[in-house]
Amino acid sequence: MPLADSLERLYACYNVRELVKPDPLEFLYSYDNPADREIAGLVASGLAYGRVEQIVKSVGRVLDVLGPAPSAFLSDTSRQRLSALLGDFRHRFTTGGELAAFLSAVSSLQAEGGGSVQCMFAGARSAVEAMESFAREVLSRASSGRCTLLPMPSCGSACKRLNLFLRWMVRRDEVDPGGWTCLSPADLLVPLDVHMHRAGRALGMTSREQGDMRTVLEITEGFGKLRPDDPVRYDFAITRFGIRRELTLSSLLELLER
Q1: pTM of the model
Q2: Domain locations in the chain as residue ranges
């Protein structure tokens, strides 16, 4: 069976809501307002490093502080007050103070963008350029030279977490909730984690061992040849193989070879 057909079969079987948990993406389903979903998505993707159990716990704690309407909460809350509310928060390298500065910066961008930060991603020549511009603007407003929540392409990062956020906000299907119109699925890049990297190598889309932006672009190009309109279409389904204990990379390859 051609690879494209095998991937479509995989998508039909594994790109389902029942396989989301445990995943920080699950938090986005609680927000119908795209502005609130933006905030939840940036928190969930920004903290998506480390053990998934701790990620989910940390994201839940932050969103509990922000309440059911996080965008409005942030617009009405000073950075100083937010720092106090998150003062004892810590997720690996991310502190409550850093998180407060990040969220306040994002809130100011939402206010200037008519309730959304998606204007920061519109009109860019590439997703890489858009991510770089967004990261630099947030860092500037947060008065910080670095941020554990926000990777930058110019620093050599694969920007997995930011690409994950964009997938959640731009694509819309049973798994990805969508909400943005500034980009099309065709503009997205693969959120490269160890599971997607191994799959990309096994499928012959890259031979690189380093998980950097060059590898992201090679794997995205490989999937783009199959689905130029939606190169990250298979990301969720593929990465279940490795994330979920009952699904392994070898079983994924067996499915694709049938």
Answers
A1: 0.93
A2: 3-257
